[in-house]
Specification:
The complex is a heterodimer of chains A (110) and B (204). With 110 residues, chain A is of the alpha+beta class. Helix content of chain A is 58%, strand content 17%. Chain A has helices at residues 10-16, 20-23, 25-36, 42-49, 53-65, 88-107; strands spanning 39-41, 69-76, 79-86. Chain A has a 3-stranded antiparallel β-sheet with strand order 1-3-2. In chain A, helix 1 packs across helix 6 (88-107). The longest helix of chain A is centred in the last third of the chain and has 20 residues, at 88-107. Chain B is mostly helical and 204 residues long. Chain B has one domain (17-88, 98-196). In chain B, 32% of the residues are buried. The chains are: A alpha+beta (110), B mainly alpha (204). The A-B interface holds A 28-29, 32-33, 35-48, 53, 76, 79-83, 98, 101-102, 105 and B 1-2, 5, 8-9, 11-13, 15, 77, 81-82, 84-91, 200, 203-204. Strand 1 of chain A pairs antiparallel with strand 1 of chain B.
Chain lengths: 110, 204
């Protein structure tokens, strides 16, 4: 009996190989925000995502570890500011993720 | 899912307009231009003053995009970023907005030179041009409230022609009307923003 994987179409393979680091809902929102801008600070991400500080920190750390974002701690006057910026690797990964997602959703029934 | 991602991206790009500062600044700019044009008409019989007003208006128009950006950034640094966070946008390669302002200013200057004093339809032309610019802003920013200014510009422009107002006065009225409408909508947006947001407690 042939292996079932041999019958998988490219689109289904895309779905299986989807980037799980981005695919997690909270991280997907963070990536979408950072994709749209040059950089954004922690407070902005906190407001837009609705996550708790701890949760947001944890997701940002994971994205940083994956090389998708850079995190820089700076000061604006005396106020500390944590700036997050999507790396080129992150942008490419996000583009590929969206492409995979588009192809995968095409094959799903209405 | 893809639509949700696009929605987040659009919403992030709209953040620049969320506090109303950009509208207030553009509104003030147009109102000043309206006043400048009115002064130009008043100074029509005094050559020295007329030159001062014309050159002043030209310098003001060409430096307007920088003035607006500087004022808005300053206000955002003091009020918006401490409340809802800081965002830096990717510089646009095409710089369409600045070229639009320059093209509009040049077009207007040429029109005032080539159209005879007896033309009487300048208000309509300027209203139509302003309406197109506001509609473009509404499309670009995803903010439908700019469409109100667009419709108002066209309506006031047509009205000035209907009332047979002087060309420069008609143009000044169109600029002032759009400026005031942006100023009001910007102030309302700012009030709503300030009511709905507060600086976070503790270090972020």
């Amino acid at each position: 009996m042939p292996n079932e994987n041999y019958d998988l179409s490219d689109d289904v393979r895309d779905l299986v190989s989807i980037d799980r680091l981005i695919h997690e809902p909270a991280r997907l929102v963070i990536c979408a925000i950072l994709y749209a801008v040059k950089n954004a600070d922690f407070l902005y991400l906190l407001h837009q995502t609705g996550l708790t500080r701890g949760n947001l920190s944890s997701h940002l750390s994971k994205l940083e570890k994956g090389g998708y974002i850079n995190i820089e701690k700076t000061y604006h006057g005396k106020v500390p500011r944590t700036i997050c910026q999507m790396t080129e690797t992150g942008r490419e990964a996000f583009d590929i993720y969206r492409e995979h997602l588009k192809r995968a959703t095409r094959i799903l029934p209405e | 899912m893809e639509e949700n991602i696009n929605k987040i991206i659009r919403q992030t790009r709209r953040y620049w307009y969320e506090d109303g500062f950009a509208e207030i600044a553009i509104g003030l700019l147009f109102s000043f231009l309206g006043i400048g044009l009115y002064l130009q008409k008043m100074a029509a019989n005094h050559f020295g003053w007329l030159m001062v007003v014309i050159f002043g208006l030209m310098i003001f128009t060409f430096s307007s995009s920088l003035i607006v950006k500087w004022i808005v950034t300053l206000l955002k640094q003091r009020i918006t970023y401490p409340r809802t966070g800081y965002v830096e946008y990717i510089p646009q390669q095409d710089n369409g907005g600045r070229w639009l302002v320059i093209a509009f200013s040049l077009g207007l200057a040429i029109l005032t030179l080539i159209i005879p004093d007896t033309f009487g339809g300048m208000g309509s032309i300027v209203g139509l041009l302003m309406g197109m610019i506001m509609a473009y802003l509404a499309y670009r920013s995803g903010m439908p409230r700019f469409m109100i200014a667009s419709v108002l510009a066209i309506a006031v422009g047509i009205l000035t022609t209907y009332l047979s107002l002087d060309d420069i006065i008609g143009t000044a009225i169109v600029f002032s009307a759009v400026g005031i409408s942006l100023l009001v909508s910007g102030l309302l947006t700012l009030i709503t923003y300030l009511r709905e947001t507060n600086p976070p407690k503790g270090e972020v």
